[in-house]
Amino acid sequence: MKKKIKKIQIFRFAVQIIFFILLPGLFTLTFSELKNIYDMITKGNFNFLSSYQSLIEVIVIIPLTIVLGRFFCGWMCAFGTFNDVLHMISKNIFKINIKVDEKVDNALKYLKYVVLAAIIVISWIMGSTILKATSPWDAFAQLTSFPNITVPLTIGLFVLLLITVGAFFIERFFCRYLCPLGAVFSIVSKVSIFKINKPKKDCGKCRLCTNNCSMGLDLYKKNNVHGGDCINCFKCVETCPRKNVTPEMANEELNPAFASSVALASFVAFYGGSNVLASALGTSNVNSTAIVSTANNNNTAPSTNSSQNSNSGQNASSSSSANNSNATSTQNGNSAASSTATASQYKDGTYTGTADGFRPGLTVQVTIKGGKIADIQITQINDTPRFYQNAVNTVPQEIISAQSTNVDTVSGATYSSTGIINAVQAALDSAKA
Ligand code: SF4
Ligand code: SF4
Predict the structure, then answer these.
(1) Is the pLDDT reported for residue 420 higher than 90?
(2) Do 297 and 255 belong to one domain?
(3) Does 280 map to a domain?
(4) Where does a domain end: 237, 272, 307?
(5) Can you give the pLDDT at residue 142?
(6) Top mutation candidate among 32, 77, 138, 186 for ligand 1, by most atoms within 8 Å of CB
(7) Total structural domains in the chain?
(8) Are residues 96 and 245 in the same domain?
(9) CA of 279 to the centre of ligand 2 (A)
(10) Which of 24, 178, 304, 352 is the 20 to 30 Å CA partner of 111?
(11) 152 lies in the same domain as 225
């Protein structure tokens, strides 16, 4: 039989590749932002307006999923694309096409809720930073830095390897069974205005839709699919020889190309608008630049043990003490201090310190005047801007205010925060009188 060209699948794959190239960090950012919101709420310091700039992906993607369903998973998520590409290779080149037993598959799908619950409980009890080295998303997002990521993300890399092997044998392995973000989406999409109709009475006995469903849904038993595990990939729609499977939005039957175009246009408009708004808010904040100089001109140091989150317009939230971090190595012969130092014990001058942020080579210049820390300049940072921005905006100012490196890291930018703290400490070690 002549194989039918599935236009929507070609369109979807093209969109997935574009998102993979242009916005590969969407899933990482969305999940870390959800964790940040959770951290801030549990610590009682959540402020939507001041946090807006660091929560754009959540602000866009969660409402999009609530209203339109899981288009993000089917069309935009780089990790979903990674799973799809692995499945394509295994199916088309190695002719592997394993179908998991329906009952086993249904039971395993609850695992992602267990993963989500475990993350919530562990973050609640031990703090979210305890999980940072285990994130396969972070390992995936930083793969281009290999082999520099092997030390900070060894566990994450191992989990990524497991996921890769799983996705090779089972379509959307990670999305079906393990993704905690997918678990969140699965719950919130239940109220969406989008669904897939498939009246059983008009079905034949082929079960083609069921056999081709990316997420292994038992479609032959259903009259429609409304959110949950459906990722709006439209494979079922294109596969049905009777054209019995149709997308429906707000009770209107739609062409799948139109439905996906509406979802994509909504995302682009909403995401673009949110970034423009964030930029406008950013320009009203005085001290946000990538490389900062943070001067304390009058050298009036407050008492040493304070850690303040008082930078105007910044979205920092304290999550853990820097001394709890495992990112302590430094370069250029500097050794990161295991204990913090206080002021008035330094020789005047400018000193350089280097440490590892998420990536190696984070370098600072610390100026000492009158025995006090007067200025901190970050002269080099190789981390991803979205991750280091909050740390750069916040941590140097806090060190100067406290005249001590005993300050908190910034939630969502722990590696960069720790790198700055350790680099400053290394510089202060050279400045000791
Ligand atoms: S389930 Fe998770 S990994 Fe899969 S597409 Fe959705 S967000 Fe991405
Ligand atoms: S039900 Fe259809 S649209 Fe939903 S995941 Fe399965 S094949 Fe894709």
Answers:
(1) yes
(2) no
(3) no
(4) 272
(5) 63
(6) 77
(7) 2
(8) yes
(9) 37
(10) 24
(11) yes
Please identify, by atom number, the ligand 2 atom nearest to the C-alpha of residue 234: 3
Residues 329, 223: one domain? no
Let me know whether 201 and 347 are in one domain: no
pLDDT digit string, tens, across residues 152-162: 567 778 888 88
Which amino acid residue places its CA nearest to atom 6 of ligand 1? 73
Q: Is the CB of 27 within 6 Å of ligand 1?
A: yes
> From the CB of 181, is ligand 1 less than 6 Å away?
yes
Query: Is 183 a pocket residue for ligand 1 (Cβ < 6 Å)?
Result: no
Q: Which of 6-15, 53-62, 158-167, 351-360 has the lowest mean pLDDT?
A: 351-360
Average the pLDDT over 410-430 and give the result: 83
Q: At what angle do helices 256-283 and 7-22 cross, to 10 degrees?
A: 10
CATH number of the domain enclosing 300: 3.90.1010
- Note whether 244 and 297 are same-domain residues: no
pLDDT digits (tens, 9 = 90+) for 302-313: 332 333 333 333
Atom number, ligand 1, closest to the C-alpha of residue 77: 8
Q: Which of 243, 272, 301 is the last residue of a domain?
A: 272
In this structure, the answer to whether residues 125 and 169 fall within a common structural domain is yes
For residue 286, tell me if it sits in a domain. Answer: no
Does 284 map to a domain?
no
Q: What is the pLDDT of residues 333-343, one digit of tens each?
A: 333 333 344 44
User: Is the CB of residue 73 below 6 angstroms from any atom belonging to ligand 1?
Assistant: yes
The CB of 232 under 6 Å from ligand 2? The reply is: yes
Instruction: From 31, 70, 73, give the residue whose CB has the most ligand 1 atoms within 8 Å, as the site to mutate.
Output: 73
Ligand nearest to the CA of 229: 2
Q: What is the pTM of this model?
A: 0.71
Quote the tokens at residue 188: 């919130």
Closest ligand 2 atom to residue 216 Cα is 6
Q: What domain range is 321 assigned to?
A: 293-431
CA of 171 to the centre of ligand 1 (A): 12
Ligand (nearest to CA of 184): 1
How does pLDDT run across 345-404, given as a tens digit for each residue?
Answer: 789 999 999 988 777 789 999 999 988 999 999 999 887 676 677 788 888 888 988 888
Whether 337 contacts 426, CB under 8 Å: yes
Question: Is residue 369 included in any domain, yes or no?
Answer: yes
**pLDDT of 111:** 97
- The answer to whether residues 37 and 67 belong to one domain is yes
